[in-house]
Amino acid sequence: MASEEELFANIEALLAEEPQLPPPAERARLREAAGITQARLAQALKSTTQTVKNWENGRSEPKPPRLEAYKRLLEGWAAKYPTHASPVPAPAPSPAAEPQPVPKTFTAPAAPAPQEAAPPPALAAAPAAPERPVRPRGTSRRPAAKKAAAPALDPRFPHGPLAVLDGDGSAYGVDGIVLDCPATTIPELVEWTLRESGLGAAKLNRHGKDSDPLIALTAAAAVKLGLPERLEGHEERRSLRLPEDHPVVKQVAKAKWQLTQRGFGPWARIYRKAQGRERQCVQLAILSWDALDARSWPGVAEMEPADIACVLGVYAQRVITPRGSTAVSGLELMTALRPPTKAVQDPETGNWVSGYNPGSLGTEPRDPAPPEATPEHPVVVNSGWTGGFLNEEAYQWVRSVDLLSDEECLLPFAVGLDLNTAFLAAAARLVVGLSGPDHFNAPKFNPKIPGSWLVDLSHIELDPRLPSPFTPDGTRPTGPAWYQTHTVAYAQELGHDVHPIEAYLRRETGAYLDPWHDRLKTAYVDTLADLGVTKDLDDRQFLAAMERHKQVDPALAAVLSAIKATVKGGVGKLRERPQGRKYKDGERWPALERPTWRPDIRAAVISKARVNMHRKLGNMAKMTGLYPLAVLSDCVVYPSPGSSPLDFLPYAASGKPQPGGFRLGPTPGLAKVEGVQEMAWAVDLMEKGLNPARHIKGGDAVLDEGE
CA angle 432-373-391, nearest 5°? Predict the structure, then answer.
């Protein structure tokens, strides 16, 4: 028999445990009685709307320090809004009509109870059925009737495209679904994902392939499955992977599964050869191995598993199921929307076989022209090419202090304008080459033919207060150089004759990036709208909405950041350079073996974006007499009489923005404020040879070519 001391010790232990919360249904009742929305409560607790939903339906519980704060809030509400007992007791339900308890972990939505009958007190803590649609609620100003409906649920993938697995075996899916995963090894996890989980996503193009299911592992789940909590090493983290003799790698091989050439790293793909039309492939993301880069997914790795699933789920619905870094996903999205093959009928046998899909890049990689390649490329090294290279890069220019006027120096502010996804805007209706390059001597220039042209543009004299449109550093060309078609066409647009010396051109052309642009533009605009930044706002409302949009919903703000990183990373990945210290010039590297290694397409996007920027700079000078202090990529800094762009942007007498210059708005290609500083600060940076735009933007990476 237990002694009195033991009993009191047990009681003290219970009292020392975490504070107890009321049942989930009571939490929701108290919040609604107080007239507080889930979004507002999430903002107060520095959490997300989806997390509050999970607390109120019993799918998850708050953890310190939010636990104590949430408990205190509920106690205060309970004192103000007590439960009023009914004076007449309700008749007890018959045993046959009594609803069955809903398990805390389930694999499908529970059947909803009849609306007329209130749930009995015994079921108050039971979690509710998951809600639709997948997207978390935002604060969009758009009318409800204009919102796009959630896509119909694919019966093959009832639980969405992905799940986040925690150490207790709970797999958190999109829309609040929680699955019970019994796997204790990686092979068991792969089998469960393919056979039982109901995860995956339908193809984005009728000629494409379904998206493989994604399982993201928390640190606890990784350790439970035999993986190290962290992936350490002396090389760059993105090149790290488990050694071939690691027990988990051996388990995968013993179960007759395969790993891609990337090995078992932060993003591991485990597969077997497809059986007929059925793919057998699972994508893993190990969160504690930095699978979600904080630059692209700010704050996501520190979120609760359910919230991570929410963020990744929204991205998967609007963009693509993540298959690696945002750069990798951006490149994979191009192929998913423009599959290289489609089913065609063999005229001789009548059988359906795989054939080329018009408008795509095909299945075979193509070597670029020597001036389009990088110096270490085999085309350059093996041919001994010394004719120069295409140098189509984003602007990094600062105006000389000697070219500043007294009036400009007396203006009190320097204001940075950043173009929304400028490279995405440049991809719209962009005609690129689909075939290999052909060489021509002394061709007549044709602005409709994509390619690389050797032209002398050094004779063109432009206003020195603007950067040259022909070079990334904004300096005047000194002789013949290689340019992409858009750059040469802009020289013609400015009224100058161009006479190419030679060219590498492509005969087959098409708007390869159009569906990629359309999908990412829609994702960007819709996500901004859910954060309260909509097209119907006037300029003042737009600036106010942009100032607070990141605080509206941290989860959606992370999705927005990932979409922008997908654009830049995807374009940069078109010219991925070799990685690893053991690489030698002239060797082929893995990226060259894919049809999407296309430096000429990357050059076309950047050339068009830079030309668009220069055209706006010229129009601004004509309309306002203002010249930029500096340009970095898609950010331009102007001297201003006030701290707002409304103080210097061109407006008509009617109050509408003048066309041709910079305009504010949420659409790709329009501007937003990136930063405001004192003018003296900007001049000081310029005297030191530094670019004010770089400091205003915080050093954003430009068109990352890595993973």
Answer: 75
Q: Given a cut of 60, is residue 470 above it in pLDDT?
A: yes
Which of these, 251, 258, 256, lies nearest to 227 by C-alpha position?
251
Instruction: Report the Cα 459 to chain-centroid distance in Å.
Output: 42
For the record, the structure tokens of 299 come out as 């704050």
Measured distance CA(374)–CA(577) in Å, rounded: 8
Residue with tokens 């507080």: 36
Cβ(572)–Cβ(327) under 8 Å?
yes
> Collapsing DSSP states into helix, strand and coil, what is residue 481?
strand
Are 600 and 485 a contacting pair, CB within 8 Å?
no
Predicted structure pTM score: 0.80
Work out the angle at residue 570's Cα, subtended by the Cα atoms of residues 288 and 693, and round it to the nearest 5 degrees. 90
What would the pLDDT profile of 131-158 be if each residue is shown by its tens digit? Answer: 333 333 333 333 333 334 445 567 889 9
Q: Where are the alpha helices (DSSP H) in 34-167?
A: 38-44, 49-57, 66-80
Model pLDDT for residues 100-127, shown as the tens digit of each residue: 443 334 344 433 433 333 333 332 333 3
Q: Are 628 and 635 in contact (CB under 8 A)?
A: no
Q: What does the angle CA 486 – CA 490 – CA 495 come to, to the nearest 5 degrees?
A: 150
Q: Is pLDDT at 252 greater than 60 in this prediction? A: yes
The full length of the chain comes to 707
Strand partners, 216: 164, 285
> What are the φ and ψ backbone dihedral angles of 82, each rounded to 5 degrees?
-70, 160
Mean predicted confidence (pLDDT) in 342-364 = 92
| Whether the Cβ atoms of residue 532 and residue 545 lie closer than 8 Å to each other | yes
Q: pLDDT per residue over 444-466, tens digit each? A: 999 999 999 999 999 999 999 99
Tell which phi-psi region holds residue 149, choosing left (phi > 0), alpha (psi between -120 and 50) or beta.
beta
4-24 pLDDT tens trace: 676 666 666 655 555 678 898
Please give the Cα distance from 568 to 707 (Å, whole number). Answer: 12
For 483, the enclosing helix (H) or strand (E) is strand 480-484
pLDDT of residue 49: 76
691 closest CA partner among 644, 628, 649, 624:
628
The candidate with the shortest Cα–Cα distance to 466, out of 618, 356, 325, is 618
Q: Are 389 and 375 in contact (CB under 8 A)?
A: yes
- Indicate left, alpha or beta for 211 from its phi (over 0: left) and psi (-120 to 50: alpha): beta
Q: Does the pLDDT at position 342 exceed 90?
A: yes
3-state secondary structure (DSSP) of residue 619: helix
**Whole-angstrom distance, CA of residue 48 vs CA of residue 176:** 13
3-class secondary-structure state, position 426: helix
Largest CA distance in the chain: 103
